[in-house]
Amino acid sequence: MRQPTAGIHHITAFVGNAQDTVDFYAGVLGLRLVKKTINFDAPEVYHLYFGNEIGGPGTIITFFPWAGSRKGRIGGGQVGITSYVVPAGALSFWEERLERFGIPVTKVERFSESYLQFSDAAGLQLEIVAREEGPRSGWSFGGVPVDKAIKGFGGAVLYSGAPRKTAELLVNVMGLEKVGEEGAFARYRATGELGNIIDLNAEPVEMGVGGSGTVHHIAWRAKDDEEHAQWRSHVESKGLRPTPIVDRQYFNAIYFRESGGILFEIATDPPGFARDEEPAELGGKLMLPAWFEPARSEIEANLPPIEVRELEVKEQ
Fold this sequence. Notes:
- It comes from Paenibacillus oenotherae.
- By secondary structure, this protein is of the alpha+beta class.
- The protein is built from 5 helices and 16 strands.
- The chain has one domain (8-302): 2,3-Dihydroxybiphenyl 1,2-Dioxygenase, domain 1 (Roll).
- It has helices at 18-28, 91-100, 163-172, 225-237, 296-302; strands at residues 8-15, 32-39, 42-51, 60-65, 78-87, 106-110, 113-119, 125-131, 152-159, 177-182, 185-189, 197-201, 214-222, 246-247, 252-257, 263-268.
- The strands form 2 sheets. Strands 2-3-4-1-13-16-15-14 form an 8-stranded mixed beta sheet. It has an 8-stranded mixed beta sheet with strand order 6-7-8-5-9-12-11-10, with helices on one face.
């Protein structure tokens, strides 16, 4: 059975300072804070979600900001680089914007595409590429107009400790198509228009260490609960060990670790982030699942205050 995923649903990372994270992803990158909640397993820590105007699958990056947490090391068993995609012709806007915010940018070429590579405040490695495909974002903030705004994920660069086995899994389990090889990478394509391009290292990468500035997991899309259950059976039939289905409020999830060390999740597209907030109000208040509501006052008192704010750019 070859059951293809449409591509990336979301990517989740560890960072240190919560306000620095909001300033970077909303203030600099112009993404929308679509959900402010907590880590259900550690309610003293935020779980922050950023994406397009609705937090659509393929646009969502999420963070566990933990002040004083150890610094991680990017390496094998992780997403090495998170790729964002912008409309064709918008790359020069982003190069200038990042430079005006004092963010060092490196230009690279990969598979005949131009990328701007940079890091966030925690050291997470990011890049921006321009492509025609994929719907545009409807969100504008902080001086980023809609016609230049980040659409969502272009994809990701995976760092595997066992790239041949990871490659087999991408094709034979996740249903991606291998579309090319170039230098140190092979390229794979999923069926969707966002979060659909995955580049994988050809040779093993020294294993990384989790911590601030590293990706915790990459999640792939399942279109609904029925398909999600099929995915769990499919993954298990390939000799992997998926978790039971977990209710994450805004999607259901299963998790498994592939042979190269990368933690994979498969997440449902529905119900989405408007299940407990009106679309116009997304990210406006701390949202808690019902079982945490009795402890709201205590939880809020333990979380640092954060705000979405427009940032002043440096004058050239």
